[in-house]
Amino acid sequence: MVISPFFLHLNYGRLLKMENIFSEKYFITTDSMFTSAQKPQKTCQDYSLCGSDPFPFLIISDGCGSSDNTDVGSRIISHVTKSLLFNSCLYSKEYSRLSELIIRRSYESIINMDIQPHCLDATLILAYIQEKICYVIMYGDGHIITTNKNGDLRTHEKVSFEGNAPYYLSYKLDSSRDEIYKEFAKDKHMKKIISNGILQPPESFNFSCFGIPLEDTKSIIITSDGIESFFNLRDGGKIPDDEIIKEIISFKNTKGEFIKRRIKRLLEDFSKQEIYNNDDISVAGFMIEENK
Amino acid sequence: MPRLMVNEIDLETYKVPGGGSIQFSAIRPSDLGASEYSLITMVIDVTGSVSSFAPDLLKMMKAIVEACKKSPRAENLLLRVLTFNYNTNIQELHGFKLLSLINANDYKLPSCDGMTALFDATYQAVTSTLTYSKTLIDQDFNVNGAIYIITDGEDNNSRLATKNMISLAVQDSKKSEVIESLITVLVGVNASNCRSALEGFQKEAGLTQYVDVGDATPQKLAKLAAFVSKSISSQSQALGTGSASQPVSLTF
C-alpha cells in the first residue's frame, strides 16, 4: 500500500473498517456539471450526477468518442452506479465486485433498446464520503483535485492510459474484447498516475482507489480527462493542465451550484480569449465545511 | 443538517457607487445557491392620485408575487419592491429577496399621498439593479433583470434624477457587461391625461416598453398582474441566451 502525506492509496480488494456512515462534523455541499466540446461541437458523451442520499456522492462518466451511442451509455452507467450506492459491496469496499454489478446491470438496461453493448464503453469515477474520509474509485482515466482550507491547490492526481485507451468496464461483457485489451496491455505500463507532478509506481490497468481525509480539506473535485483538451484557437497551442485547474478551483462562492457557476464562467472567460475545449468535460465536487 | 434555515437569512445594505445617497438592500451572494438569477424590481406609485385604487394595486402586487412563486423559475428570481411619492420619496418595501422568503400577506395598503418623483424612483431602481448585478456577476453568477414602474402620472417633483441620467445608466449597462440584459417597462394606469408625457419619458430615458393599462379597474389591474408575471417569466427564461426576452404584448 502506497501512503502519501494526504492520501491513502488503497490496493483494490483491501477492506477498511467501516464506522458510522454519516459524518456530523462536516457540512458537505455537492454539485456537478457536464458540457460538450465547444470546438468542434458534438453530442456530449460525458455525464455527471451528485447528491447526498445515502451519503454525499459524486459520479462522472466519460463515453468513448469512437464507440456509438456512448452518450446514452455514460448516462446509464452513472444512474446504475447511483442505484448501487446502498449495495453492501460499497460498504465493504469490494470495488471489483461493484464494477461487475455496475456493468451487468447497465447491460441489462440496454438489452431491449436495440443498442450495441459498445455504448457502455465509458469511464466511471465514483467519489463518496463516509465518516471523515472521501473515497474515490476511478474506473478509467480522470483527475482528482483537492484544496486546503484556504482554497489553495493541495493535491492533483492525474490518471491516464497509454494510447488514450482506458480499460472500460464494458470489456468484461465480451471476453474477446477483454482478451484483445489484455494482449495490447501486455508488457506495457498502461496506466500512468501522476501525483502532484510526480510519476507514481506502475499498477494494474484495473481501477484505482484513493482515500482523502476531510481534515483540513476545503474541496474535492473530480473531472474527466476533458479538462486536458483546452487549446488556443489562434495558435493551436494546448493550455497546460495547471492553468485549467487553477481556474477550476477559483471559486468565488462556495454555496449551492458552485461547480456550475465556476465552470460556466470559466468557459465564458476562456472563449473571450479564443480558448476552447475540444473534448466533453464533466466536473463534480464536494465543498466541505466544518460544523461549528 | 443545513446550518441556515431559509427564514433566518438577513439582507445586506449596498450603496450605489457615484449615486449620491442611493442605497438598497439585498440578500448576500454567499446565501445564494443557484448559478443564475433574474433581478426583478417593482416600482409602485403611491402618490395621492392612486389612493382611489390603492386596494386593487395591493391585490395586483400580491398576485404578481404568487404567480412568480408558481413559476418553474421561481428559485432563480430575486424580487425587490419600491414605492414612491414626493413626501416619503422612495421607500423600499423589501430589498432583493428570494421568493421563498417573501410573504405577500406582509404587503400592506400604502399610505397614498404627495406628488410624483417618477424619475428619481426609476433611476434608483435601475442603478440599484446594476450595482447588485455587478456584485453577483463578480461572484460568477449569471444575471439579468427586469424593472416594472407602475404610475398614474408624469414626473413633477424628482430631486435627483433626469431622463438623461436614466438613459445613460441604461446604456452603460449594455456596454459594461454588468448585466446580461435589462428590460425596463413603464406602465401607465389611469394615465390617459399624461400618456404622451409618459411615452416621451419612455423614449428619452431609453426604457424598453411603455404599456398603457387604461382605467384602474380591478379587472385591468388583474390583467396587469398577469402581464407582469408573464414578462418576468419570459425574461427569466432568456437568462443564459445573451439577449433580453421579447417584449410581451397584451391588450388591456
Tell me about this structure:
The complex is a heterodimer of chains A (292) and B (252). Chain A is of the alpha+beta class. Chain A is 23% helix and 33% strand. Chain A is built from 6 helices and 16 strands. In chain A, the strands form 3 sheets. Chain A has a 7-stranded antiparallel beta sheet, with helices on one face. In chain A, helix 1 (70-83) packs across helix 3 (95-110). The model of chain A is unreliable at 1-22 (pLDDT under 50). Chain B has 5 helices and 8 strands, in the order E-E-E-H-E-E-H-E-H-E-H-E-H. Chain B is an alpha/beta fold and 252 residues long. In chain B, strand 7, helix 4 and strand 8 form a beta-alpha-beta unit. In chain B, helix 1 (54-70) runs parallel beside helix 5 (218-237) and helix 2 (118-137) runs parallel beside helix 3 (163-175). Chain B is 32% helix and 25% strand. Chain B has helices spanning 54-70, 118-137, 163-175, 195-204, 218-237, and strands spanning 11-15, 23-27, 36-45, 77-85, 89-98, 142-151, 182-189, 209-214. The interface between A and B is medium-sized, with 15 and 15 residues.
Question: How many helical stretches of chain B?
Answer: 5
Cα gyration radius of chain A (Å): 18 Å
Low-confidence blocks of residues of chain A: 1-22
Describe the global form of chain B. Answer: globular
Order of helices and strands of chain B: EEEHEEHEHEHEH
Mean pLDDT of chain A, nearest integer? 89
Strand order of the largest sheet of chain A: 1-2-12-7-6-5-4
What distance separates the N and C termini of chain B? 49 Å
The main sheet of chain A comes to:
7 strands, antiparallel
Uncertain regions spanning at least 5 consecutive residues of chain B: 1-7
State the helix count of chain A.
6
Number of strands of chain A: 16
